[in-house]
């Protein structure tokens, strides 16, 4: 391990004087209407999903058209914790996202930070379930 680290360090220091430059490309996918985008994941369908925290919604960006649509949540309404069809579900500052497959059902686990809930959004059925209780708050004790 020490030999490998030493060889890597020697290789890097010998490349530094050459001024080797990395080629990096940065592209903006979308910014339309987003407010405090927090987390981004890629689905098996190659679509991009992100939590638009201040708008209380989950956004889907289509991989082929680059168009965005609200997958779950209602940006024009205030925050809430309603379940049901994803287009009627309310979030309160959704942040973390994780793609999961549980017992053959694919979906997004969403950390609904303002409601203190973990919610499950199934893109195929557009339905939202949750774990936790929005009426119970941490007292800091």
**Biggest β-sheet: strands ordered side by side in the sheet:** 5-9-8-7-6
Rg to the nearest angstrom?
A: 21 Å
Note the beta-strand portion.
35-45%
The shape, in one word, is globular
- Under CATH at level 1, the class of the domain at 36-131 stands as Mainly Beta
Order of helices and strands: HEEEEEEEEE
CATH topology grouping of the domain at 36-131: Thrombin, subunit H
Low-confidence stretches: none
CATH architecture of the domain at 36-131: Beta Barrel
Measure the end-to-end span. Answer: 45 Å
> Which bin fits the share of residues in helices?
under 10%
- Tally the helices: what do you get? 1
Q: What's the total number of strands?
A: 9
Largest sheet: 5 strands, antiparallel
Structure, briefly:
The protein has 141 residues and is mostly beta strands. 10% of the residues lie in helices and 37% in strands.
Give an overview of the whole structure:
With 141 residues, this protein is mainly β. The chain has a domain of 96 residues: Thrombin, subunit H (Beta Barrel). The protein is built from one helix and nine strands; from the N terminus they run H-E-E-E-E-E-E-E-E-E. It has a five-stranded antiparallel beta sheet, with no helix packed on it. A four-stranded antiparallel beta sheet has the order 1-2-3-4, with no helix packed on it. A hairpin with a 4-residue loop joins strand 8 and strand 9. The termini are far apart. The model has no long low-confidence stretch (mean pLDDT 75).
């Amino acid at each position: 391990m020490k030999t490998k680290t030493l060889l890597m360090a020697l290789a890097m220091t010998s490349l530094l004087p050459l001024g080797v430059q990395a080629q990096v490309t940065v592209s903006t996918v979308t910014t339309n209407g987003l407010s405090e985008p927090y987390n981004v994941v890629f689905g098996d369908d190659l679509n991009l999903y992100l939590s638009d925290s201040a708008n209380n919604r989950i956004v889907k960006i289509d991989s082929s058209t680059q168009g965005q649509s609200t997958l779950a949540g209602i940006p024009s309404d205030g925050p809430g914790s309603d379940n049901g069809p994803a287009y009627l579900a309310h979030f309160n500052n959704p942040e973390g996202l994780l793609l999961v497959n549980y017992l053959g059902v694919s979906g997004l686990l969403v950390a609904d930070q303002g409601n203190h809930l973990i919610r499950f959004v199934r893109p195929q059925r557009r339905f939202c379930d949750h774990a936790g209780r929005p009426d119970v708050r941490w007292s800091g004790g």
